[in-house]
Write a structure and sequence with these properties.
183 residues, alpha+beta, 4-stranded antiparallel beta sheet, 3-stranded antiparallel beta sheet, 3 helices, 11% helix, PIH1 domain containing 3, PIH1D1/2/3_CS-like
Length: 183
């Protein structure tokens, strides 16, 4: 039985992986308990977090993008919309599989947002696209949409299809690790 570990060897290995520090024995139930580690304090005994302006409730970087567009008193309804992820696929992808692309959302390179706007003219549309937020206003509808992925806000395009009364907004996705995403 050469190559098999004995009980003694397995117990020794188990002791190697068992940590004896108090922090290692803490679990999710210890969050907020007195045994949880405290914040680091500076020489004066205060925490390192300092507000820039004590009158503000939160900092600007703590507020999500697009929150200033939320208007709860606006009675306009939200139009129907749909988000479709797209990828550029060529014959080398389809027949030969050379680019290692797959049908997952990790390989998508653009996002198509379709918004149904009945009884609306193209001249009535006001569209503002941010990196993670899309704001669309018309006299009848209001859409504030948090996008599922960051986009290149300056490189997108939009077109209004009169026959279907639908706005199509195509936005290229901003993928910080494109070499990993295989786009």
């Amino acid at each position: 039985m050469e190559g098999l570990a004995s009980v003694h060897d397995l117990q020794a290995l188990s002791r190697c992986f068992t940590l004896s520090t108090p922090m290692a024995r803490m679990g999710p139930g210890h969050i907020g308990s007195p045994a949880a580690p405290l914040e680091k304090k500076n020489k004066e005994g205060r925490t390192a977090y300092v507000k820039k302006n004590s009158k503000n409730i939160w900092d600007e970087d703590e507020v999500t993008e697009g929150a200033h567009f939320d208007d709860l008193t606006d009675p306009r309804p939200q139009p129907e919309y749909e988000i479709v992820l797209k990828q550029s696929v060529g014959t080398e992808d389809l027949f030969l599989g050379l680019s290692r692309k797959d049908p997952s959302s990790m390989c998508c390179d653009s996002m198509l947002v379709r918004v149904k706007l009945p009884d609306t003219k193209a001249s009535d549309l006001v569209l503002d696209v941010r990196e993670t937020f899309l704001d669309l206003r018309t006299p009848k509808y209001k859409l504030g949409l948090h996008l599922p992925h960051p986009v290149h806000k300056q490189e997108g395009n939009a077109r209004f299809i009169v026959e279907r009364e639908e706005l199509e907004i195509t936005l290229p996705m901003n993928r910080p690790m494109d070499c990993i995403n295989l786009t």
